[in-house]
Amino acid sequence: MTAELLESARALGPRIVSDRRTIHSHPEMAYDEEQTSTLVQARLRDLGIPFRAGLAKTGVVAQIKGELGEGPCVLLRADMDALPIEERSGVAFASEIPGVMHACGHDAHTAMLLGAAQLLLERRSQFAGTVKLMFQPAEEGGAGAARMIEDGVLSGPPVDAAFMLHVRPELEAGQVSYGAGPILAGADAFSITVEGRGGHAARPHQAVDPVVVGAQIVNAIQTLVAREVDPTVPAVVTLGSFNAGNRSNVIADRAVLKGTIRAFDDGLFTHLEQRLRDIVTGVASALRATANVEFEMRYPPAVCDPAMAELLGESARGLLGSDAVFTSRPQMGAEDFAFVLQKVPGAMLWLGVKSPEWAEPKPLHTATFDIDESALPIGSSALVGVAIDYLNRS
Ligand SMILES: [Zn+2]
Ligand SMILES: [Zn+2]
Description:
The chain has 394 residues and is of the alpha/beta class.
């Protein structure tokens, strides 16, 4: 089946590429994926695949039943949202929306799952049970997967196993990798507000400068991982944004800092959250300001079931040959598929999208991010392969 599957996926390649480019040029942010959702629904309708729309606002779930009778249900997932980044990739089909870009490859994920839908439909005589296709909003910080679970994506019929893939620009197109156990960290987004007292730049003694207080907080937070976490245990605290004031000669009255904590262990998260609060309020009060910390959202670590990871790896080896399939080490990135993995066993595949022609790396979440589109049919066939292998395993 595998050589034939890859061949059919390659024949479908131009369609997958054109869907990806359409979505790429019209990127939409979390919970705003109306056009993308409409495109997904139109494709499913054309194929005659039944679906339900409006889960988690823009999410879509479709079902393909095998012709070999009743059986388990396996879910394949794609995410649809883009990022607030101004695209500088230089591609002809670049974003037409200022300040918004598909810089995490979710355009490719959606197009590949649509390709997989067609391939599965053509192979219904080869499996029993059901394949569910989950097109979700808001992976980037909005926990779209959690909301789709609330809206019933894992029931009717109940899902027994789940798989996804994510593009990986460090890995060559044609290669994939996978891992068992905790492979992506949990992520905890937080926001610090420092309240000082604004004033004239020439009269700092009459003000409480929140920029100076914020700067001390930035430094003090660096001790959290360096001095309070066991060096053999992975953890990251990063501040991605620091905003205060807008004039050179005015002392601002407030600073807002936003950041993220990454770790694998629940107890460590709780410790870092508490210590972050202690440091922020302690530094602020020592410097005559006040500050508070709000934790906005915690993604759990993504934990791949060892048996499902092995099935995924075995399926990929069958498709691409063992030389092209690697095992991956855990990463500190986060993924809201972790919410699905808390409910059902599953695994994720890293899909190589690096082109041999690139002189520079094109990392995820950057303005120059890009993919080698020859990987798209490989992604579609890897999803189809693992779904059928799961349903047909004895
Ligand atoms: Zn991302
Ligand atoms: Zn992503």
